[in-house]
Here is the input.
Amino acid sequence: MTRTAEELAQYLGVRLEGDPKAEISGVASPERAGKTDLIYVDSHKHLERAAKSKATCMLAARGLRLEGKTSLETDNPKFAFVKSAEWLLPRFEAEATIHGTAILGANVVVGVNVSVGPYVVIEDDVAIGDQTKIDAFCFLGRGARVGQRCRLHPRVTLYSGTRLGDRVELHSGAVIGGDGFGYVFGEGRHWKFPQMGSVEVGSDAEIGCNTTVDRGSLGETRIGQGVKIDNLVQVGHNVQIGDLSVLAAQVGISGSSVLGDYVTVGGQAGMGEHCVIEDRATVGGQSGVLGGKRIRAGETVWGTPARKLEKFKQQYARFGHLEDLADRVRELENAIGERGAGKI
Amino acid sequence: MTRTAEELAQYLGVRLEGDPKAEISGVASPERAGKTDLIYVDSHKHLERAAKSKATCMLAARGLRLEGKTSLETDNPKFAFVKSAEWLLPRFEAEATIHGTAILGANVVVGVNVSVGPYVVIEDDVAIGDQTKIDAFCFLGRGARVGQRCRLHPRVTLYSGTRLGDRVELHSGAVIGGDGFGYVFGEGRHWKFPQMGSVEVGSDAEIGCNTTVDRGSLGETRIGQGVKIDNLVQVGHNVQIGDLSVLAAQVGISGSSVLGDYVTVGGQAGMGEHCVIEDRATVGGQSGVLGGKRIRAGETVWGTPARKLEKFKQQYARFGHLEDLADRVRELENAIGERGAGKI
Amino acid sequence: MTRTAEELAQYLGVRLEGDPKAEISGVASPERAGKTDLIYVDSHKHLERAAKSKATCMLAARGLRLEGKTSLETDNPKFAFVKSAEWLLPRFEAEATIHGTAILGANVVVGVNVSVGPYVVIEDDVAIGDQTKIDAFCFLGRGARVGQRCRLHPRVTLYSGTRLGDRVELHSGAVIGGDGFGYVFGEGRHWKFPQMGSVEVGSDAEIGCNTTVDRGSLGETRIGQGVKIDNLVQVGHNVQIGDLSVLAAQVGISGSSVLGDYVTVGGQAGMGEHCVIEDRATVGGQSGVLGGKRIRAGETVWGTPARKLEKFKQQYARFGHLEDLADRVRELENAIGERGAGKI
Here is the structure.
């Protein structure tokens, strides 16, 4: 949608310098921008890139100006940029078409303006909210529930009974609701613990490509509202993730762990079973939290086994000086030896 | 299937206290159970949850009883629970239908009571055993062989020549038989080593969502009987995994490694090429076994590079006291210094 | 294609001993070889395997001969083997058929001898080069470009705008061009940074099963020519990978990192954002390179945080002797104590 610089300034609540009627229809990097794309400049070092850009309008940190460009001045140009992007650009086009090759089971309830792509399979008793878009090759198992304005990219699998809130976005290859990994060994083999629970994904959550979220065994796996999960992440059965938490790529959360709100987990980190990660805690990339451990609210932990970041840094620095320490012990031994040979 | 408490007690070989005619048709957690769901209670601390449950029957550890509930007394209620679940609940319904949209190549042999879902593609010369269920979007490459009573969840890929035993369960997104990762560098580029072998998966194996198992290069990759593999695991070319081993999520096994029987590998652990992990060994979560290493039968190893758990614990404890050790060296230096300044 | 030993010797430029007219039609391991399969023997210890083989012809290291076999003598039998395999065996058969169930959008340009499998979905404005093969269930988003002689195995997803060079091979479940993982937190929630860039994959690249490569946010993600990426790898938004680099399974590269040419990354290694890994550097398996770090050309690093291999080995050896060091400090304390009790 095309807007004017003035309209955008008003939406963002910021001051405009330049032409209030300048048109803005998209966002871009300075190098790729056309005349009506909005760019942002958050420091002096990027000013030259902006100067060379074809863009007419820029979001700029206070004090950054360029001759001939219309500026919207803000304390946080990057944040203003993402806000503007969401305001200018629709997440996707609602098409209100069910492709002729889509297969819908009995008792499927489809809302208004829903788009279902080619070769989608929807089993019985599924419900899909208004303005949701389901791309090619998606599979929605029996009894799944999808909220409004959701987007399922091509080739998403929802096992039976999975429930999604509104505005959830699932990327290609994601599998939600697969069986949890639980066995009891006896009589010479592994017996599968019943995996009969389900998965609930809160509104505004986004889940990356080829990520897997297992169903609860007897209870539920729950992903909170506004949670963002990157690609190739594993979320085990009965895991609970609070609102607005963020999990980077290739993280693994074992069964029955509980993450609070605003938790951040770095890439490739892992958690054993029954961990508790309290609100606003941060687990560093590649860290390993042992099963049953509790990370306190607001703490940052690092390493395997995970410990407080300050402690990790101190130990790691000490580790780096082990060679020195060994040298000092040798010198002490020599000194003692000189004065009392045979003692040690 | 609905059974009586008496029938279940007889199947399990346990003592019944209460109403022998009480009906049991499923299993559940105490909170979710209906009247005819079986629950289990393995310690006093869960007795109150059971007391509040609607369930009529419970599997209970010796000495745990509840007024008004029919009890089946057993040493291991959790194991009795999984046995009961398997006995009461069918793994899946055999439907004996080939969906009209499934595409079958030439010379495909399909057993009795086989169910093939919508948009399944089966290439030439594939054989599928009795009572197997193949869900939507599965791809079975040329010459693949699938045993009896297998379950392929939606969107499983079997590359050509893959062979599955009986009662194998493959979860959504699993890819079995992809090319191994082997190249020889020469004349300025990487030349692909031929990846012409195949994969054989033993009976009763289960493989998780989005897990990948590569075909052998010239020989075979082999997954033993009753092996359980979680989600997002990578099994390289020519790997051999013995019977009843268990691999947790995101584990990576490099090419030509050999795992014995009853091996346990924790989440995110990795093994280099040509490792040997003998029977009943355990590799801890996130551990890394260097290429070519051998872990002895029954050993538990931890860390990267992986070493015996006791050694890891000892070293790690020592690591935690490095600060102390450095302090003690400083004090020794001071003591020596007082008595012989200039010596050190 | 069947060739003679003489023709192969000529192609490889090596000396032939035995029957120049011996026929060769494939390659195999000694154990699996038929009469016309080529085998290779690179050391004395494999000579017995070769002696028992049905194969008539072998590539052999200098000085290795077998009665009754035709030998092609070479310094590097394994390399000669992969060269021979590529020469003898076509990568795949070009079939020049578009399956009746494939769905092609408007303005799709398809080259000569292109094969499109069942249930493929190709959106508008896609171009596909000559002799490319697209298997079942692939999804090519709007505006995607695929070069000549590419192979897309079943169930590959190309998000809109993805561009592949020539002879690219993508394995089952790979997702190229998914949204990058970038958010800006403000006003109580995570706002998605625009993910509008694209992915460019160079000629002769190969990408493994279930691997994910994210699109650039405002710019591009770029995979160089001849790059080989194993299964379950994550490549973040705006990452640049130079030519001929190799990434083993389950590696994770965070956003905006830059890898040079001939870089080697071991399995499960991870890199933070904005790393620079210069040409010919090697990152060991499970290593972690902290965000913003630079690894110099040709260096080998190991561990988390990653450091030079020699340093890692030295520190690790020292770590292994911590117990000894502590003992020596205790002995020093005792020695000092004897001579000056109360001093320490």
